[in-house]
Amino acid sequence: MIKAYLTIDDVTTSLTPGIVDFLTSKSITPIMFCWGERLLAHPDEAIYALKHGVILQNHSFSHPEFSKLSLWKAKREIMKNEKIIESLYKKAGVDRPFKLFRFPYGNNGGEKAEDLQEFLERKGFAHIDDRAFADDAYFRPDHKQKRDVLWTFDFAEYNLREGNPFTFDDVKKNVKNFIELHEDDPDDGKAHHIILIHDHEETEERHPGYFQEQITMLLDAGVKFAIPKIQ
Ligand SMILES: [Zn+2]
Question: How many CB atoms lie within 10 A of CB 224?
């Protein structure tokens, strides 16, 4: 069976409260990786999520490709968003359970990757608990035990864009392949996967209700969601 953590990227938008309500109704606790500029534009949506038990974490301030930044700018991208996230937790009156970071596009900084791992460790960012994951679970094979949070399954629904031949049937195919590959994973009560989905108004315009439909596909296939934990 498949047990997974759910992660949602590029939060917050006008869609965020609806996503929170849907997941609450399914008793799923996600990690939302937040884009700082969007938190500034939609702070009330962030407070709403926090008050409903959602874990908000850091996905950089302006969502750049980290390999293209100088080291100090990369660090600033992380810390600028930290300040915003900390103030939102405070405003919501919720204790932040732990600190996690995800690089935009999974771009770990290229030549700066080691320096950034050291920086994340020094700033108190945690390892997500991936000890029960298969060694080759991540698409980047050496990722296990790294300080940033990667994923093991990506719906890739952000490809639903004007001029891109990708369709919702391709999303369904991605889900089918993932289920077929992993439905016989061990039933040991532990998470073996990190699912990635996005909070994108553009995708909602192309395929209304995409978020709910995609999560329902996984639930219908028997996927269970674990409460996110660190090591
Ligand atoms: Zn992103």
Answer: 14
- Dihedral sign of CA atoms 48, 52, 54, 57 in order: positive
Residue 60 Cα to ligand 1 midpoint, Å, equals 9
Q: Which fold has domain 3-225?
A: TIM Barrel (3.20.20)
CA separation for the pair 38, 41 (Å, rounded): 5
Please give the model's pTM, rounded to 2 decimal places.
0.97
State in Å: Cα 219 to ligand 1 middle.
24
80-99 residue pLDDT tens: 999 999 999 999 999 999 99
Tell me, in angstroms, the distance from the centre of ligand 1 to residue 64's CA: 9
- Residue 117 Cα to ligand 1 middle (Å): 19
Strands of the chain, DSSP E: 3-11, 31-34, 55-58, 153-154, 193-198, 224-225
Beta bridge partners, 32, equal: 8, 56
